[in-house]
Specification:
- With 152 residues, this protein is α+β, with helices and mostly antiparallel strands.
- The protein has two domains: 55 residues, no CATH class; 71 residues, no CATH class.
- It has four helices and six strands.
- The longest helix is centred in the first third of the chain and has 17 residues.
- The protein is elongated.
Length: 152
């Protein structure tokens, strides 16, 4: 006895009747269902087609979608979407981070700096950007091996 695929039944009753069982087979059916729901079907609560309702909301400014702006003082989205740490500069004007010493010539000893860690999975590298008083003072690129205890 064969049972219908619950995923196929949830996506579209026709998919269950066609006995589609794999994700690859259902992908096309799912795309058709998304198109039908967003562009053709009148929503039972709003009485409007979702695509037209969204276009009207954008036109009248009644949507929560806003353009992405990089906050000052940052110049790159990499400084917004990154891991952040704070450290204090030692008396030799150096920053120690996981056995790596980073010289900071323009930062006085005892000052707190913010480190932005930007991993690059494809190259297996990590960029360290050091910020002090809303200014980037150092940028260094290391391999993942330099930070064996950090997992990306």
């Amino acid at each position: 006895m064969s049972f219908p695929n619950p995923l196929a039944t949830a996506i579209a009753p026709g998919a269950a009747l066609e006995k589609l069982t794999s994700i690859e087979d259902l992908r096309h059916v799912l795309q058709e269902e998304i198109h039908r729901y967003c562009h053709l079907q009148v929503h039972s609560t709003t009485g409007e087609i979702p695509d037209y309702r969204f276009a009207k909301a954008q036109k009248t400014g009644r949507t929560l979608f806003r353009p992405f702006l990089i906050p000052k003082p940052y110049r790159s989205s990499k400084d917004v979407f990154c891991l952040k740490e704070t450290r204090v500069v030692n008396p030799y004007r150096r920053l120690t981070f996981y056995q790596e010493e980073i010289p900071l010539r323009h930062v006085p000893p005892g000052e707190e700096v913010e480190i932005h860690l930007i991993p690059n999975i494809d190259r297996e590298t990590i960029e360290l950007r050091v910020w002090w008083k809303e200014t980037i003072v150092q940028s260094v690129i290391y391999t993942f091996k330099a930070f064996s205890r950090v997992h990306f």
